[in-house]
Amino acid sequence: MGKFSDLETFICVCETESFTAAARRLNVGQPAVSKTVARLEQQLNTRLMLRSTHGLRPTDAGQQLYQRAKRILNELAETESLVREGGAGLSGRLRVSSAAVFARIVALPDLTAFLQANPRLGIDLLLDDGNLSLIEEGVDIALCTGSLDDSSFTARKLGEIEQCVMGTPAYFSSAGVPLRPEDLAQHEMVVYQRRSGAENWSFSRHGETRALRLQGRMRVNAAECLRELVLSGFGATVAGEGLFRSELQSGAIMKVMTDWQLPPLELWAVFPGGHFAPAKARAFADVVQQALCREP
Fold first, then answer.
1. Closest by Cα among 268, 278, 28, 264 to 150
2. 101, 224 Cβ separation under 8 angstroms
3. What is the DSSP letter of 263?
4. What's the predicted TM-score (pTM) here?
């Protein structure tokens, strides 16, 4: 068996949880399947499969190999299909993970045009403000904001958006308009709990920098909840302008302290498959980046 055949056999064993069932699916003898897995373990110098009361299951290393090997073989099949069909477009299903509010932040690209250009492609859009396990969920590309916590993934910066202090005109009319960073201590601040857990902000103006730790009675980890609280007039927040794009245009939300600058919010595409990210994931990242370039 060749290297790719060995990986295909290993994938089949992981999915069937049995040497015998894998051999039946592959139409080969059971000894050939067990020898293939043993050969892979010897080559990698690590245990890949464990026996349990329910059959075979992959070790942590085996699970990593399964996920990455499956991506590599899917990419190879996709490339072969494109070559055979003369570049007729992308195919299969693309699994995209994103914060539920990402469309508000960056105005997601026109998926209709992307799908129309690739009629054999489908998209699973997983919207979640929590920490999805990208490998376990089989995610091809994750759209993330802020600093990246996991350096083991391949990432590509797509762009940045400005951050500012915002609230409703009615709230600021009642509570007063803050003029300096330290004034925010006297306001009801709705704090978005970022993945890093940090709520320290650095404000700068004319070469002067002031650090501030935001305090607030309301702390949320879902951006849609933050939007509702601010729009209800409960308090102010520090967030990316895109979170309230339409409300800023209509006047329902206003920016304050505009002479003070905050670090921009970085937007990233994360590829759990590393350098073997599918072509369809890279193409989707290109479309998102192009949409960001068109943002004012």
1. 268
2. yes
3. P
4. 0.65
